[in-house]
Amino acid sequence: MKVPLPATPGKDASGHVVELGQNVTSVQIGDRVLVAGHRFQSAGTYAEYHVAKEEEVFTLPDTYTLEQGASIGSPYMTAIRSLYHAAKGKAGEILFIHGASGQVGIAAVQLGVAHGFIVYGTAGTEEGLKRVLDNGAKAVFNHRKEGYLEGVKAAIGQQGANIILEMIASTNLQKDFELASRRGRIVVVGGRGLLTVNPTLIMAKELIVTGIKLADSEPAEWKEMSSVLRDGLAKGWIKPVISKVCPLADAVQAHQEIEKPTDGAQGRILLRC
Q1: Exposed, middle or buried: residue 267 (CB in 10 Å: 0-12, 13-18, 19+)?
Q2: SS3 98
Q3: Per residue in 77-97, pLDDT tens?
Q4: Can the peptide bond before residue 247 be classed as cis, meaning omega within 30 degrees of 0?
């Protein structure tokens, strides 16, 4: 995706409303808000002031800090879009999150538990495993351990997972075919390269494999996702994980830290203006 230059990075933010456009009624000057950017734009959120569309702005309850507010937008909207628009999930279904301890993964765990799904997941560190369990998953498995798929299959049962949210498809997609139920839905949220797969199980199980792109959400879809997000804020099941808060002047170093190899998924790194 190419953004016209010069450009300011950033999609998500939090802060106080200082000015309103014409016909804006959902917030008032002085309100504490979070911004969930719908699409990338040249004037991003790495700034002291940011202009956002009304549909991207959400009142932040007093129970959340501004740091938490800035951590919510993209991960939670991605999880909501994955579970409801891509997978068309329904309460009571088995949801398996392949890579559940990262930002989108933990948002999906919280969303699934709050909305009545039976949630299983994987992580790659002891910290990540604990994080997934602490957020309500029925069971979690270490995807770095040989043979972990057998543990997943035994826990879920012969029927398989109705929905799989896949965070690293380039590594796990073939495994997902084995774990999915008949007519299961596999949603590719992320991937890092090429992968060769055997399509036999896709045909035999009549699987649906799809991807998501948050920026391509239609206005009606964004409205539905926003309703779920507001409900989560009001009920308090949205609990973002924060790794570090840095000054805006350290933006370059923050990005370098994000790109460093780690032992497992980390919380969000924030920039404070």
Answers
A1: middle
A2: strand
A3: 999 999 999 999 999 999 999
A4: no
